[in-house]
Design a protein that fits this description.
0% strand, 10 helices, 221 residues, binds protoporphyrin IX containing FE, mainly alpha
């Protein structure tokens, strides 16, 4: 699978970017439905306060929009049209700030799910504005290479929630042989125990993949 994330001057959209776009477009309606419909009872998590619900109603649709806009930036044909790239980039940064800093950080701090989950989401939520600022400052001083590299890292952080949701089922499959001894055969207990570690793995795996792509691109360009 081509993994240059559109960093070489080609008009072909890399297959990894297409795969990300397909996953993002399929996941968005599934994940965002309860929050767009304002149906609190349909939320998959235990929403404990009205404030947490309001934050989620803002967080989920804006995170989903940022995830799709960010992926579009790796499509070479879109990036080649500078005003379009700039407009999408500014919107991505604005919506992303709302999704990951303004709502993501308080949601992480107030999660009822314990410290492993809390820090597993607080780290990417805090990294997001820092990495966004580094990427933005790089392009302001005309350093296109650094801008591109930091944007790849930023997108890896942005996409972490989806990677988490793909990793947790794999973690559950890996635990099938020990399901009865570890969880008394209770699959729900296995899900609850695996999600917090999935949160950590989501952004760690994505950032490792981003670093691999960046280094590989440096070598070939
Ligand atoms: C840096 C990226 C992200 C951070 C830091 C983040 C943070 C959070 C936090 C802290 C919660 C509350 C969890 C809890 O209370 O246990 C949450 C929930 C949620 N987030 Fe995000 N998120 C990110 C990206 C995304 C993306 C890209 C989506 C895609 C749509 C998304 C969709 C959701 C959904 C749907 C929920 C509610 C749980 C559920 O219904 O499954 N998040 N997020």
């Amino acid at each position: 699978m081509s993994t240059d994330l559109g960093t070489t001057p080609t008009t072909r959209t890399p297959r990894l970017v297409l795969a990300i776009l397909v996953v993002a477009l399929v996941a968005t309606p599934v994940l965002a439905f309860p929050y767009v419909m304002l149906d609190r009872s349909a939320s998959r998590i235990d929403v404990q306060t009205d404030l947490a619900w309001i934050l989620l109603v803002i967080h989920v649709p804006s995170a989903a929009t940022a995830m799709i806009l960010g992926a579009l930036q790796f499509v070479p044909r879109i990036r080649a049209r500078r005003p379009v790239h700039r407009a999408i980039g500014r919107t991505f940064l604005g919506i992303g700030t709302l999704a990951f800093m303004v709502t993501g950080i308080p949601l992480a701090l107030s999660t009822p799910d314990g410290n492993i989950t809390r820090f597993g989401v607080l780290v990417p939520a805090t990294l997001w504005p820092v990495v966004a600022l580094i990427a933005w400052r790089a392009i302001r001083r005309g350093d296109v290479v650094r801008h591109r590299e930091w944007m790849i890292r930023l997108y890896a952080i942005t996409f972490f929630a989806i990677t988490t949701r793909m990793l947790v089922p794999l973690m559950l499959l890996a635990q099938v042989p020990v399901m009865s001894s570890w969880y008394d055969g209770d699959p729900q207990a296995a899900v609850s125990a695996s999600i917090p570690y999935g949160q950590w793995l989501g952004w760690i795996v994505n950032l490792a993949l981003a670093e691999w792509i960046i280094r590989r691109t440096r070598k070939t360009s």
